[in-house]
Design brief:
This protein has about 325 residues and is an alpha+beta fold. The protein is built from 7 helices and 16 strands. The chain folds into 2 domains: about 20-175, GAF domain (Beta-Lactamase); about 225-315, OB fold (Dihydrolipoamide Acetyltransferase, E2P) (Beta Barrel), CATH 2.40.50. The chain has helices spanning about 20-30, 40-55, 90, 115, 155-200, 250-255, 305-315; strands at about 60-65, 70-75, 80-85, 100, 125-130, 135-145, 210-215, 215-220, 225-230, 235-240, 240-245, 260-265, 270, 275-280, 285-290, 295-300. It holds the Pfam family GAF.
Length: about 325
């Protein structure tokens, strides 16, 4: 069950979660994989905005683990973390609204806190809780000053909005990391698949290859490939009526194609030999896509001067 939020009035002492609820909260925090990561502009911008809106010299995005409060973003604060027992935010993150202390020296919960009696000499504190979509409190976005003050209703609402923005960025960050992880798994699967296929075709090249298209692997029979075209960091593979664009180099792809069946005819082109229907002075004519009337068309593919001799040596000339 997600942790239930509750309001802490000034006469209520800190009441930690039950062990089970705290474990669930910590697991939710760890799932974001954000603790001890470098600064990120999205979060830095939000604390700068919080400081501006609240008119305070200090603002932070705090995340509380089992031993400390760590600052994902901060302005006006030198330290990057403080012990958990000193954290104002351990109260604020359980509030269902902005938790505000006008003068910490007058509050019995904080008047002897080292953060009040020594640097950074906190007097004013206001923090809005960071709640996951499941209701787990992760920490706060807070504003701090060295002089007593009070927020007006518009500033409190703005701080609540910023708290929701922090969580939205955490969710986006996690989704982006998950996408990168899935892409890496797919690329590793592609590599293993083609390596396995390569080991079964030691004679040079493979009868089929797998190419990554969006979030899936597509199997292509090399007998169906007409030609390959280099395009910057990508290559286009022309198969029947389809074109597959993949992130690869011509050298990598050439090594995976059956050497006896394909020829490099240009730094930008590889053709399948049995798809060549004619050769002109500076181009090979390759069988093109069959139309609806089943008639077969042709398409010229340039020949590089340095590749022409090798190409001719591969053909049965009479």
């Amino acid at each position: 069950m997600p942790a239930k939020t509750r309001t802490l009035s000034e006469d209520i002492a800190y009441q930690p979660l039950s062990p089970m609820a705290e474990q669930a909260r910590l697991e939710a925090l760890r799932a974001y994989q954000v603790l001890d990561t470098p600064p990120e502009k999205a979060f830095d911008d939000l604390v700068s905005l919080a400081s501006y809106i609240c008119g305070t010299p200090t603002s932070m995005v705090t995340l509380l683990d089992s031993e400390r409060q760590w600052f994902k973003a901060r302005v006006g604060m030198k330290a990057d973390s403080t012990p958990l027992e000193q954290a104002f935010c351990r109260y604020a993150m359980f509030s269902d609204t902005v938790f505000e202390i006008e003068d910490a020296t007058q509050d019995p919960r904080f008047q002897n806190n080292p953060l009040v009696t020594a640097d950074p000499n906190i007097r004013f504190y206001a923090g809005a809780p960071l709640l996951t979509p499941e209701g787990h409190p992760l920490g706060t976005i807070c504003a701090i000053d060295t002089v007593p003050r009070r927020l007006d209703p518009q500033q409190r609402e703005a701080l609540r909005i910023l708290a929701r923005e922090v969580v939205a960025h955490l969710e986006l960050r996690r989704a982006r990391m998950q996408l990168i992880y899935e892409q890496q798994k797919l690329e590793e699967l592609l590599r293993m698949t083609n390596d396995t296929a390569g080991s079964m075709n030691v004679g040079g090249g493979q009868s089929e290859i797998f190419v990554k298209q969006e979030h899936k692997l597509v199997r292509l029979k090399t007998v169906d490939i007409r030609y390959v075209e280099a395009l910057g960091d990508y290559v286009n593979i022309y198969v029947g009526q389809d074109r597959y664009t993949v992130y690869s180099t011509m050298k990598e792809l050439e090594a995976k194609l059956p050497a006896k069946e394909f020829a490099r005819i240009h730094r930008k082109y590889i053709v399948r030999l049995d798809k060549i229907v004619a050769i002109e002075s500076d181009a090979v004519i390759v069988e093109a896509v069959r139309g609806a009337d089943r008639a077969s068309g042709v398409m010229p593919v340039p020949i590089g001067n340095s590749y022409k001799a090798n190409l001719l040596s591969r053909l049965n000339l009479i």
